[in-house]
Amino acid sequence: MKVMVKLGLLALALCAAPVARAEDIVDTAVKAGNFKTLVAAVKAADLVETLKGDGPFTVFAPTDAAFKKVPAKVLNFLLKPENKSALVKVLTYHVVSGKVMSSDVKTGDVATVQGEKIKLKAGKGGVTVNRAKVIKADIEADNGVIHVIDTVIIPPSLNKTIANIK
Q1: pTM
Q2: Domain assignments of the chain as residue spans, ordered by start
Q3: Are the C-beta atoms of residues 124 and 141 closer than 8 Å to each other?
Q4: Taking 50 as the threshold, does the pLDDT of residue 147 lie above it?
Q5: For the domain 21-163, what is the CATH code?
Q6: What is the pLDDT of residues 91-101, one digit of tens each?
């Protein structure tokens, strides 16, 4: 009888204990500390609530070091309020609907939330997205997964715009 009471109390305690949960995509990126530029861009594009939504999302997230590879004039252009639509295109080009873990990645073209396709390549050398290399995979969040990439990828529809920035 005493054992059953103790087991019952233990079960009750386990049910009442808070469940440890991951955070959403945005909170996970903020907590990581190496996505400050990405988070600032997401805020500037008014995409925070979207990426905190139910999802699931797969985000190919460029690090701060990846953003440093982008010429300053291009980054400044994208972050200006009047160019918000271009910034939204760039950021949503890094997002795929659904939760795609690295073990599920297959080589081929995949539609992004932005609408254009990215080229995923899975092989012995790891995973690449267009020409960006996945340097850390499978960072899980409540509403999806983040794969860290070493380069910002630009949708083909913005190539001419980006090339003409003075």
Answers
A1: 0.84
A2: 21-163
A3: no
A4: yes
A5: 2.30.180.10
A6: 999 999 999 99
